[in-house]
Amino acid sequence: MLSFICYFVFGLLSLRGAFAHWVFSALIVDGEATENWQYVRNHTNAEYPIKSENMTTTDMRCNVGAVGTNTSTAPVKAGSTVGFTVNPLIFHSGVVDVYMARAPGKAADFDGSGDVWFKIYEIPPVLDGGESIEFSTFNATQIEFPLPAAIEDGEYLLRIEFLALHLANYLGKAEFYIGCAQVAVTGGGGGKPTKTVAIPGAYSSTDPGIYMNIYTPIPTVYVMPGPPISDFTQ
Ligand SMILES: *[C@@H]1O[C@H](CO)[C@@H](O)[C@H](O)[C@H]1NC(C)=O
Ligand SMILES: *[C@@H]1O[C@H](CO)[C@@H](O)[C@H](O)[C@H]1NC(C)=O
Ligand SMILES: *[C@@H]1O[C@H](CO)[C@@H](O)[C@H](O)[C@H]1NC(C)=O
Ligand SMILES: *[C@@H]1O[C@H](CO)[C@@H](O)[C@H](O)[C@H]1NC(C)=O
Ligand SMILES: [Cu+2]
What we know:
Blueprint: H1 2-13, E1 23-29, E2 32-33, E3 50-51, H2 59-62, E4 74-77, E5 81-87, E6 94-102, E7 117-123, E8 126-127, E9 133-134, E10 142-146, E11 154-164, E12 175-186
Parallel strand pairs: 4-12
Antiparallel strand pairs: 1-2, 1-5, 3-12, 5-10, 6-7, 6-11, 8-9, 11-12
The protein binds 2-acetamido-2-deoxy-beta-D-glucopyranose (4 copies) and copper (II) ion (CU).
One 2-acetamido-2-deoxy-beta-D-glucopyranose binds near residues 138 and 139.
């Protein structure tokens, strides 16, 4: 039944040429999209999400079957604007979280294990005291955000996550769309993140931002999943 709803909605939207949901397929550097899967790790999950019944899988790091060895590492400047293309577009209501993790060596060799992930950006819903709830990324074909100026130079995984909430009122049925780029940061301020988490580990299927109802009553608050956006040491 749940997948019926999802596929029914999808079926209507597939008239736009979508195949099944969407992927984050290309890194955007200084306003320019790079090639699909050039700097973003390819994976074996096609356009499908990971559902919130699977919050302990290591696939939550960079998606199912994503490995770095086929992927190049993009030079980027701390403090610059980067992003991800959405292929073809976001057509669920949900929120965005972006994390980074410093690789001990090359980003291409890093599996994202350890207490290493820090949040750098988020897009919560727009609320107004229970009158309405709006998701500004609906229909988005790209998501852009600033890299922190304060971070240390080095190679990182840059992970975007879209958490679709249209079925989040069913336990385990919120949907995570995930992509990881490999980046080599220069020009940074040398700071270390003050708040890091492990992925998996940061999320649970019953978190208030993951198991919740966006429809009735219209929420007056929304608790973003995971840690707050990190600060950096001087
Ligand atoms: C990575 O490259 C290998 C060798 O070309 C290929 O067999 C494999 O399917 C690729 N994996 C992904 C996830 O693209
Ligand atoms: C991406 O991975 C899929 C699934 O393994 C594979 O079919 C496809 O050829 C890969 N694309 C690239 C550009 O590596
Ligand atoms: C997610 O959980 C379901 C039910 O336990 C399981 O069948 C499926 O293989 C899991 N998927 C992943 C990617 O872990
Ligand atoms: C998304 O795009 C469709 C088709 O252009 C449009 O009908 C719909 O109103 C848009 N939704 C939002 C929330 O912008
Ligand atoms: Cu869906």
